[in-house]
Amino acid sequence: MRTKVAIIGGGPSGLLLSLLLHQAGIDNVVLERKTREVVLGRVRAGVLEEGVVALIGAAGASDLLRKHALRHDGTVIYDGTSAFRIDFAGISGQSVFVYGQQDLTRDLYDRHAEIGGQIIFNAENLAIHDAKSDSPFVTWTSEAQGAMQLRADFVAGCDGFHGVSRRTIPDTVRHEYEKVLPAAWLGVLSQTSPVHHELIYAASARGFALCSMRHHNLSRYYIQCVATDLAEDWSDEAFWSELKRRIPGEFAAKLVTGPSIEKSVVPLRAFVCEPMQWGRLFLCGDAAHIVPPTGAKGLNAAAADVADLSMALCQFYASGEQSGLEGYSATALARAWKIVRFSLWFTGLLHRFPGQSPFDLNLQRADLAQLRDHAAMQKIMSDSYVGFVR
Ligand code: APR
Ligand code: PHB
Asked: What is the pLDDT of residue 390?
């Protein structure tokens, strides 16, 4: 088999890249280790930047998103005593869109099927070869067909944190940076109406809480928990009761509770791999960087990489121009570090961590007061929240 771009991983990054390349008439094949059902079953965050919505539109997959996504012009921040609002639309002239990543992935898959895109599931033992040559190739095994091989001009590593692409870059070239925070989030999905029409980020003395949503009858709530907690350690009752104690009283009073339909623990950590290119191998999304979930930047950061890489590949195939491909890693890493900075800052602002001294807590309070009181601080926060994809 031969194609122009071999895309490793059929998550949101891989599918979006595949669709964008397809729009430009660039042949590509997606190789996914799991089944379609497993990929579509993953529950992740749900906030999309305006620039990402536009990108999904360019990929031809935004019909349902434009119909059902909830536009959010601002968000509520609770400092433990009082709540204030950040007006994204007023401050940054942009909004964000709440739409579950699960729904987005389904839309990308449906569009991919519609255009006859090629995706191979259950691709096991995948390996990337000769990435430093002009003719890289990918091998894998499939239960039905045995040993397989795909030759390509380029390989896009969109295979998430646990994929093989990043590890194909030799240890002598690759630098990995990681920060693991001593806390996690416990997330619950419930078929209840959201407590408020905007998200509420709560920095309570008992730890962080977040009130989010998917649509008018599907809520997503999170509370900070201990990093070693398991989802099954938490009964629904314990979850709701803790959530109520962490959010402003007026919202706790009207919170509608119900059985959880999904419950999971999300770790809080940041990770960056440098470089994001090695020869003809290019990394996108979670394969190269992870951010803590506060601010919901993971998918948006991945989409930003995909936007850059698809543009660079289009430029290359249209005119032979290589500058976009050559600059890809430096551009994507500069942005990734800014997104890591924002996500860690926003996390640090709102969480309680073991070992924080009274000094640390006073500093955190001052930080929150600065965000509440200073337009310049709100501008930085709002611009970061609404987007790194322009
Ligand atoms: N071979 C083929 N596919 C693989 C391999 C492999 N060796 N390893 C992993 N994969 C697949 C996974 O099964 C998964 O479907 O690659 C896909 C990677 O998808 P994600 O982990 O979702 O990563 P990405 O597409 O970059 O999505 C960006 O944004 O909100 C965040 O973390 C969240 O998934 C989200 C991410
Ligand atoms: C979510 O709805 O899952 C979500 C929203 C905002 C965040 C993180 C997660 O900052």
From this structure: 62
Provide the domain limits for residue 312.
5-70+97-178+269-347
Q: How many separate helices (H) and strands (E) can be counted in the chain?
A: 13, 20
Pick from 109, 120, 159, 272 the residue to mutate for probing ligand 1's pocket: most ligand atoms within 8 Å of its CB.
159
Instruction: Choose the residue to mutate in 42, 43, 47 for probing ligand 2, maximizing ligand atoms within 8 Å of C-beta.
Output: 47
Ligand nearest to the CA of 45: 2
CATH code of the domain containing 239: 3.30.9.10
| 46 contacts 220 by C-beta, under 8 angstroms | yes
- CATH number of the domain enclosing 17: 3.50.50.60
- Mean pLDDT, rounded, for 195-215: 97
Partnered with residue 224 across adjacent β-strands are: 185
At residue 45, the pLDDT reads 84
The three-state secondary structure class of 280 is coil
Which is it for strands 28-31 and 5-8: parallel, antiparallel or unpaired? parallel
Is 142 exposed, middle or buried, given 0-12, 13-18 or 19+ CB atoms closer than 10 A? middle
The mean of the pLDDT values for the chain is 97
Side by side, the strands of the sheet bearing 47-49 are 47-49, 96-98, 70-72
H helical segments located in the chain: 12-23, 36-41, 50-58, 63-68, 88-92, 101-114, 165-168, 236-246, 249-254, 298-319, 323-350, 358-373, 375-386
